[in-house]
Amino acid sequence: MLKNNIKNRVKEMIERMNVGEKEGLKKRMIYRKFLDKPSMLIIKILIVFIFFIQSLNFISATSNLYWVGVSDGNWSNSSNWASSSGGAGEAGIPNATTDVIFDSANLNNSIIDANFIGVVYSINVSNSYNGTITSNLGWNNSLNITENFLISNGTLKHGANSNAEVYRLNIIVGGNFTLESRSFINLTGLGATSQIRLFE
User: How far is C-alpha 63 from the chain's CA centre?
Assistant: First the structure.
């Protein structure tokens, strides 16, 4: 009887060892298969991550728009903007990713009108532009410039006010504001206080 019990115990132990070895072998095979052929989920995650990084680079890229002013003089009219100096209009309207450029290719005056979104990346008024840039955004609105605002020539002003303060030259510059010797901010007789705020 004792011999039979010992035999049965040994047999049970051997069977458990065999089961354990089979389970271990099965786990090792699954692990090896995972290493040999990465899961499709991981591949999909990597692809999405790569596209996300590329989209960030695309979004952060800026583009140039040149003032041509062939239509009504308003910033909100795409006819007044070209993708190259002296080029044709209809190139789009400046926005938060736009470098706005004024040069000698077109000296027409421009109006930052109330329909304009009020945000650009940078503004460069070259020393060859001697026109006037007038802000008609409204007294409680501002022109927001993410980076630098350089005025090498020409005149910057707001629209004329009569009894009420309708227009104000309110500019927020995130980078450097440079007003060179040939340029002017002219508020004479326009009836409003104005401010240019710089933010580091």
Answer: 11
